[in-house]
Design brief:
The chain is mostly beta strands. The protein is 3% helix and 40% strand. The chain folds into two domains: 46 residues, no CATH class; 80 residues, Roll (SH3 type barrels), CATH 2.30.30.290.
């Protein structure tokens, strides 16, 4: 069974919320974010409006980095591959997202169709929040 984890992007401050400042509430349905100034005191919770929550896929890239929803995965062009698949300075970029009951890439391929691509070729080179210029 995969580990269930999240990260939260603060749309106002344009930064990720520290891991110790958010958690799933007791009913297991709503993710709430603590007020930054009250995080040390705890017990002050606010709804996630104004935040984007990304879930961990349970997979890691070739460098051992955890892959989250909204991450941008890169693959470098290698000799013998069709260079038209790598139009951006010799790199191919795909966004990770949830769709049709499965983790998918920006090209609508299911993760399961990728085999060992994540562990052997792909690496997290950014995310949609901090690096939109990669798309």
């Amino acid at each position: 069974m995969r580990e269930i984890k999240f990260r939260a992007w603060d749309n106002a401050f344009k930064t990720f919320v520290p891991q110790d400042c958010f958690a799933v509430n007791n009913d297991g349905n709503a993710l709430c974010v603590k007020a930054w100034e009250d995080a040390l005191e705890g017990e002050v919770w606010y709804p996630t409006s104004g935040h984007t929550v990304d879930q961990y896929t349970g997979l890691k890239d070739k460098n051992g980095v955890e892959i989250y929803e909204g991450d941008i995965l890169c693959e470098d062009w290698l000799p013998g591959r069709d260079s038209s698949d790598f139009p951006h300075d010799g790199k191919m970029y795909d966004v990770v997202y949830w769709g049709d009951h499965s983790w998918k890439l920006g090209n609508d391929e299911w993760f399961s169709e990728q085999g060992d691509w994540f562990e052997t070729k792909a690496y997290v080179c950014g995310n949609i929040h901090e690096n939109p210029e990669l798309l």
